[in-house]
Amino acid sequence: MNLAMLSFWHVHAKDYAKEALDHPETLITAVWDEYEERGRSEAQKWGAEYIDSIDDLLRRDTIDGVVVTSPTNMHKDLIIKAAKAGKHIFTEKVLAATEEEALEIIETVKQEGVKLFVSLPRVYDGYTKAIQDILASGEIGDITQSRVRLAHDGAIADWLPHHFYDVETCQGGALIDLGCHPVYLTRLFQGMPQRISAQFGYMTGKEVEDQAVVTFQYGSGSYGIIETGFVNPHSPFTIELHGTKGSVLYRADEGHLLLNTGNGFEKVSIPADRPSPFNQWVEHVKHNKRTDENIALALDLTVLMEASYRSVQQESEVAIIS
């Protein structure tokens, strides 16, 4: 597959470019960027041609797919343009900032028959599969509470690019970026909530939130807590699931998955990670496989993000309409 990188705006753009370079069946042959100087520089680094017109790039029959790592507010236009040009699409999360935009993207992709895959990497990590197996077994009973926390120090150590604090291009701050991971994991473990309540913090005085807490409320009476932030230098990625019969805990810094069903916490084996989202996308294109599961979760992520931001704006709970 000959691929084009559409923008190096996102911090993970270079990671995906490296994956493409390392993959035996993909090549980066073209780069477009909304910021020409950056685009030309990156094209030179990756041995690709810089094309200053997105329309010219998408008209090229030699390009099979695109990697979208542009500002979030450009996702809809770029992905729809690429789909209508017959290009397969791999994109950084979120798919879009609103459900309306996400549905328009999904409908266009369906009509054009191209493969869309959204990067939701922690879905495919081994600990996630192990936790899903524990939940399916009924070992911890009915879930009463969950907590997923992911944070780093990007805003206080000043290693995040400054454009990550621009509300127009990002469509949000810590939650819509880093917070995507605990949000989609909570959705994966517990399903879609009935109501959402969110609170934001602005420790560094940025235009966007630098930390956030979101609570999912379920009809059963259970709830999920999502925590994220850019102002925490020593906060390990943590998953807690508590049920009527037991609890399961995971901390990335320790690397252990622990299960307690009444006899104390014991280690549970963690299977190997599944292929990365990028590698899965390539396989889906190669074998003409549907990407329904990934797209459904990406759509739910957008719905939950939109509701969370609306909760803060309205200073109230927001109902999730199924």
Overview of the molecule:
This protein folds into 2 domains: 2-114, Rossmann fold (3-Layer(aba) Sandwich); 122-276 and 303-319, Dihydrodipicolinate Reductase, domain 2, CATH 3.30.360. The chain is built from 10 helices and 15 strands. The chain has helices at residues 13-22, 36-45, 54-59, 75-84, 99-112, 126-137, 167-170, 180-190, 277-286, 292-314, and strands at 2-6, 27-32, 49-50, 65-68, 88-92, 116-119, 143-151, 195-201, 211-217, 223-229, 238-243, 247-251, 256-260, 266-268, 318-319. The chain has a 9-stranded mixed β-sheet with strand order 14-13-12-11-7-10-9-8-15. Helix 5 runs antiparallel to helix 10 and helix 8 crosses helix 10. The two termini are 38 Å apart.
Which word captures the global form?
Answer: globular
Task: Predict the CATH topology of the largest domain.
Answer: Dihydrodipicolinate Reductase, domain 2
Helical fraction equals: 25-40%
Q: Describe the sheet with the most strands.
A: 9 strands, mixed
Rounded mean pLDDT score? 97
The second-level CATH architecture of the largest domain is 2-Layer Sandwich
Low-confidence regions: none
Counting H and I runs of at least 4 residues, what is the number of helices? 10
